[in-house]
Amino acid sequence: MKRSILKLTALFLTLAFLLCACGGDPLIPFSGAGYSSSDAPSSSGSEPSSSGTETPVEGDYTPGMWRVTSDTYPGTLYLFGSIHVGDDEMFPLPDYVENAYASCGALAVECDIVAFEQLPESEIMKYYYPFVLTDGTTVRDHLPKETYEAAKKILTKAGYYNASLDYYNAVMWNDLVDQAAVEHSGLSYENGIDRHFLTDAHLTGKKILEVESVEFQYNMELGFSDELIARLMRDCAEDSYLDDYKDGVLEMLASWKDGSIYDNFEYDYSELTDEERELMEAYDKVMETDRNIGMADAAENYMKQGMNVFFVVGAAHMGGNDGVVALLESRGYNVQPVR
């Protein structure tokens, strides 16, 4: 696959895109936790067995999940790596996943995108204003000409482009190109794992805990430089971009479904220049390493409160030496795979 996993990681293994959180709309037009008894471990008998690796469902649909317990605190955590888009074949999820979710009194997610979508449009627009260029420039001044023209072609074909879009910054263009590529792949934000559990939690009244927030993620994107965004968007100038993107996305989804996505979290930067490698390493630190620590801190806080939580964050935050799983293990928690 010619397309780098660096860009795919940004899209699928974090929730750092604006448009997913707004119900998949291409663009809003430019206009200038405490503990309660419900968190306690379930006594319904629906909780999976706690003895080591648990029995998976039949077939090869075995996405990665971990059960976290402590010799000191009474809480139980289920860590489940999310992918933020998907297909209809992802549902229903395996029984061991749904049973773990049902046994928990609370759902923890990166941010509650369902609640965000229900805000008045005037409130949502406040999150978009910072992405508008107000210094007299247009996005043409912030992206290489070849990248701009290629992105414009993709957005026009997808039905997204209009003249006002030139007044949004490069980050917004990056997100829109991602959305157009997702649509080309045939996958949908509506099938995202976070959305699946959030929708149920809102309907049933299950407690929802935000590990980060929509505002946190928007501000994170706003901190990315034009140079970094240009690097992330560079491949869109290739004729095979959309098809390569589709192949990479479907490959990633398949590896998420069978749990192999966690087998190798080392990114290959060998083909990058020193300058590009420095950009991407800084990007990884912001997008993954630093956030992983915050997520592990939140998970540990829930454990210390004795809460029973189904903890769903992007799959890239779970695996690797700096992932949430390894961090909790290093802090002395008992972490057992459930697959």
Based on CA atoms alone, the radius of gyration comes out at 20 Å
Number of domains: 1
Q: Calculate the terminal CA-CA distance, rounded to whole Å.
A: 28 Å
Shape: globular
The main sheet orders its strands as 4-3-5-2-1-6
Helix content range of the residues, please? 40-55%
The fraction of residues assigned to DSSP E strands is 5-15%
Number of strands: 6
Q: Please, what is the average pLDDT? A: 84
Low-confidence stretches: 1-18, 20-26, 28-58
Class by SSE composition:
alpha/beta
> If helices are DSSP runs of H or I spanning 4 or more residues, what is the number of helices?
12
**H/E order of the elements?**
HEEHEHHHHHEHHHHEHE
Instruction: Give the biggest sheet.
Output: 6 strands, mixed
Features:
339 residues; six-stranded mixed sheet; disordered N terminus; alpha/beta
Structure commentary:
With 339 residues, the chain is of the alpha/beta class. It has one domain (5-123, 189-221, 245-337). Helix content is 42%, strand content 9%. The protein contains twelve helices and six strands. The protein has helices at 5-12, 95-103, 113-117, 121-128, 145-158, 170-185, 193-204, 214-222, 226-233, 241-257, 274-304, 324-330; strands at residues 65-69, 76-82, 106-109, 207-210, 308-314, 334-337. A six-stranded mixed beta sheet has the order 4-3-5-2-1-6, sandwiched between helices. Helix 6 packs across helix 10 and helix 11 (274-304) crosses helix 12 (324-330). The protein is globular, with a radius of gyration of 20 Å. The protein starts with a helix and ends with a strand. Mean pLDDT is 84; it is low at 1-18, 20-26 and 28-58.
